[in-house]
From TrEMBL, chain A:
Organism in which the protein naturally occurs: Micromonospora arborensis
Family affiliation: Belongs to the binding-protein-dependent transport system permease family.
Taxonomic lineage of the native organism: Bacteria, Bacillati, Actinomycetota, Actinomycetes, Micromonosporales
The ABC transmembrane type-1 domain, residue ranges: 99-314
Location of the protein in the cell: Cell membrane
Record-given protein name: Sugar ABC transporter permease
TrEMBL record, chain B:
PROSITE patterns: PROKAR_LIPOPROTEIN
Keyword field contains Signal: yes
Organism of origin: Micromonospora arborensis
The name this protein goes by in its record: ABC transporter substrate-binding protein
Keywords linked to the UniProt accession: Signal
InterPro entries, A to Z: Bact_solute-bd_prot1, SBP
Signal sequence, start to end: 1-22
Amino acid sequence: MTSANQIRMPAGGASASPAGPDGAGRASARRAETRRKWYEIIGLTTPAVVIYVMFVLVPMGFAVYYSLFRWRGVGPPTEFVGLRNYTLAFQDPIFLDALRNNAIIVFGSLLIQGPIALGIALLLNRRFRGRAVFRLLVFVPYVLAEVTVGIMWKLLLTGNGTVDALLRSLGMGGLVHAWLADLDLVIWTLLAVLTWKYVGFAIILLLAGLSNVPDELTEAAAIDGASWWQIQRHVTIPLLGPTIRIWMFLSMIGSLQIFDMIWVTSVPAVRSLGASATMATYMVDNGFFARLWGYGNAVAVILFVISFVAALLFQRFLLRRDIQGAITGRAK
Amino acid sequence: MATNRRAGAVLALLMTSVLVVAGCSGGGDEESPQSELYKNPVTLTWWHNASQDGPGKTYWEKVAKDFSALHSTVKIEIEAIETNQLQRTRIPAALLSSDPPDIFMTWGGGEMTEQVEADYLKEITDQTKTEVASIGSPAEIWQVNGKQYGLPFRMGIEGIWYNKEMFARAGIAAPPTTFEELNAAVTKLKAINVIPIAVGAGDKWPAAHWWYNMALRACSVDTLKKAAKDKTFDDPCFLKAGQDLKAFIDTKPFQPNFIATPGQNDPTSANGMLANGKAAMELMGDWNRGTLDTVATDPAKLATFLGWFPVPAISGSPGDPKAALGGGDGFSCSKNAPAECVEFLKYIASPEVQKGYAETGTGLPVVKGAEAGVKDPALKSISDATAAASYVQLWLDTAYGSTVGTAMNDGVVAIFAGNGTPEKVVSGMKAAASK
């Protein structure tokens, strides 16, 4: 809304006033201008709205509709079953495993990546030789395609693969595990790979946040006799609050919807036993592979509702101050 | 002027959006009159699964070109798609969208029955009598209620691929013909520190095929036929299959951590283990000759030690010891495909084309006379065993359809992983049938 106001161009005002300088004319000129403003708004937003409706809202509506049918994807859906697919999902122990795995990834990512990223970001924010190289290296895993990373780690972690060989050659043969085959271990292996991949993203966000912390404040604290650690603890980190919260938000949503890495790195058998399934892989396994299209749509709706509610709660309680104005109206 | 220009721009934007949207929903091709063959130019779209570069893919390109050369009115557009994508997403979505390819792959069984019930496939019973007669009983897999809806181009039974050199070293005189002999062979192979059997349990179906074979031995042919038709699995032989499998797994014939081993396509797969001399046996279908070659570091050496024998019998079980599990690949024409599609289907199933297919070594041909093109000794023994089989049961997951099939495979994999039971396989299948 505000953006349309700001794009008002000087040429437009002049050409749109056909009437004379009397009062009625001025009023009609104002009306014409208002009308023109609306044309602009409609014209500029229509393509985006059309695409959003066509490719986001309509498919979502269809997903809800299909989820109410027992439907194998052959012919139109005809067998209405109400909420049966939803009940079936919550009765399936594998789906509950998938929910648990998603929870592990959400909280695991926050608890592991957060401190690591903060530490590395604070370190990389200091001036030292080769800082640019380190910054680059830390960010490389995030830039790689998720599927590439997944296949790479699958090969590294396979039985008697590179990781095992490395451990043995370092005399740590006792640490060798069936990283991707041990049903109790596999989700933690995947969490480690995810951490490796996504910690770079957190670091870059935090570094950007750190560059916004005014030097005056840290200098003032230093003059007051604060140690480096005290400055970080009491000045820098509190000022990083908005950045940290935005990162937490993005990390949480990404973790709830995680699919590619799990799909590529862990094999179908381990997924179908529940050991490494997430809601998204469960949806594809059941929707496409078992051809339970109605059921798959129900799982998609559940995934959407969980992500949506989590996002709303997060915005309501943690992001409220940070996004004031952007969503809730004019700032200040 | 400025306003006009802007209005024009807005209009253009709107028009583009509308066009984009229209483009997404369009595509309903005009149907050509089906009365006279080869009168009007037609384009046939053809979807197959030979997506990896190799003799299979090249051969289909040649077949399409040859057919166009014979009939200048027909143009064939090929799209080669990886099997899972093709079967699970592309074909179902295309069929639903009412703009399916003219000719595409079908595998028979439960899925094909549903496609026929939804009126997606062209019935070709009358046009293909000659081909069906030449193919014999495997053609029945592409029938629904006695009517023909597709023709196979590849068909074979599964059996055990093995390393002859390792068998000789372990002192195994002849390939096992009963499970007792197989167990003895496993013990001998372990004694020379060789992994007896590689199984790609990570992909689920390679593990599940062991259960299928136990079921084939435990169940009578009538029980199997009835189960495929009614999707009822109350016969105790289905429980027996799981118990026999569990007993077999307990003898530890497989490689360690098999639950994460993929089936084929990479050197760490079960396929790769056999191809590169890391394991002595693998249960797999006739296509394995081609896939073993692609993962072998030394294909020439592989050819010297590779052998094949049928799945051993279980003594004293009610199943027919000469029955075998098998399956194939076929093509069907979609309901509204031009009549030329059926002609092309028949062309693919003609002896010359089938012979050329056999020469690619990617699978066994189906029509009489084409087996002359089979050169590989291992494939030859499958070809003979297929001809000698008293009954060929279609892969159970294909026969029962993806829904029951997936539940069945998941249940079997759980037995392999040590947290499933024979009872859970059957109850999972029953639950899936009602899902």
